[in-house]
Design goal:
Helix content: 10-25%
Strand content: 15-25%
Radius of gyration: 19 Å
Number of helices: 3
Distance between the termini: 35 Å
Order of helices and strands: HEHHEEEEEEEE
Largest sheet: 9 strands, antiparallel
Structural class: alpha+beta
Strand order of the largest sheet: 4-3-2-1-9-8-7-6-5
Length: 296
């Protein structure tokens, strides 16, 4: 059962993206104390020791993983670049301008964020590792499954939000190679950065010890970027009883018809956020039904 602050946090995350939720900070109201984040982790109390291993000898990545506050700005693929500026081609700059001026944040319309956006998300996720594949479970009530020993993509894969994903082990590193992404339906992060149909991602996942999960991500998209993009971050192990819960983004999405284009304000620290937010709209009623159809 969620507390009210947690519910408000998740509503804001899925209706107006996780960056807006951080600014709203779990339902904080002017003049009232700011509640603590349900996703906060005291790193000094994390368990010590080596990473657990599965029966095949590889590290077991299973667990509930929370963002480390050391990775800032969250939600921004350009977090490790000077001035947070990505190396755009002319076509890439035009695509960014289009997203900022004409495109509503896809996640605010309940479109799956996909990869690499989910890799940059401010939300936790759950990982379940089996004998032949690994499952990533997200707070958006969506998931992805990656096999452990497939090294060739389909000949003509259907474009999807997570792409055609194949995976294999390189020692203690699990590699996920993805192609065939849906074009123009998603942003690569919260800041409206675009991708084309040429996007290709390579994720390298490691668990250096029991309490940390690390990602090294490379995004190659020669149509929109002059060089491969590099991104890295670390997650922290949650408590054994923590897990993702069902959340229906489209249900009661009263904000949907009222959201303007673009990511909103992005501060000099590269962090998307809003200084002042209006209260969340009331739930729909018979005179104001929820949004059920999202235009193409």
């Amino acid at each position: 059962m969620f507390t009210r602050p947690t519910k408000l946090f998740l509503i804001a995350v899925l209706l107006t993206s996780s960056a807006v939720a951080r600014a709203q900070d779990q339902g904080v109201q002017p003049g009232k104390p700011r509640p603590s984040s349900p996703f906060a982790v005291d790193e000094s109390k994390l368990a010590k020791g080596p990473a657990p291993r599965s029966t095949d000898g590889h590290p077991d990545f299973s667990g509930y993983w929370l963002p480390s506050r050391k990775d800032r700005p969250s939600g921004n693929i350009g977090k490790d670049y000077p001035g947070y500026k990505l190396p755009f081609t002319e076509a890439g700059r035009a695509a960014l301008k289009h997203n900022v001026e004409q495109t509503v944040d896809p996640e605010a319309l309940c479109v799956v964020g996909g990869i690499p956006r989910h890799d940059a998300s401010a939300l936790p996720f759950q990982l379940l590792q089996g004998k032949s594949q690994v499952a990533f479970l997200y707070w958006y009530t969506t998931y992805r499954l990656i096999p452990f020993d497939v090294r060739k993509h389909e000949d003509d894969p259907e474009p999807s939000f997570f792409g055609d994903e194949i995976g294999w082990w390189e020692g203690d590193t699990f590699v996920i190679d993805s192609t065939a992404f849906k074009e123009e339906r998603t942003w690569i992060d919260e800041n409206a950065n675009p991708h084309s149909d040429q996007q290709h991602t390579v994720e390298k996942w490691t668990r250096p010890d029991v309490s940390h999960l690390h990602l090294e991500l490379t995004v190659t998209d020669p149509k929109f970027y002059t060089e491969p993009l590099h991104y890295q971050r670390t997650w922290l192990l949650g408590k054994p009883e923590q897990r993702v819960h069902e959340y229906s983004c489209a249900e009661d999405n009263v904000d949907g018809p009222h959201i303007g284009p673009g990511p909103g304000p992005i501060g000099p620290d590269g962090q998307r956020g809003y200084g002042v937010l209006a209260p969340l709209p009331p739930p729909p009623d018979k005179d104001h039904p929820a949004v059920t159809n999202i235009p193409e």
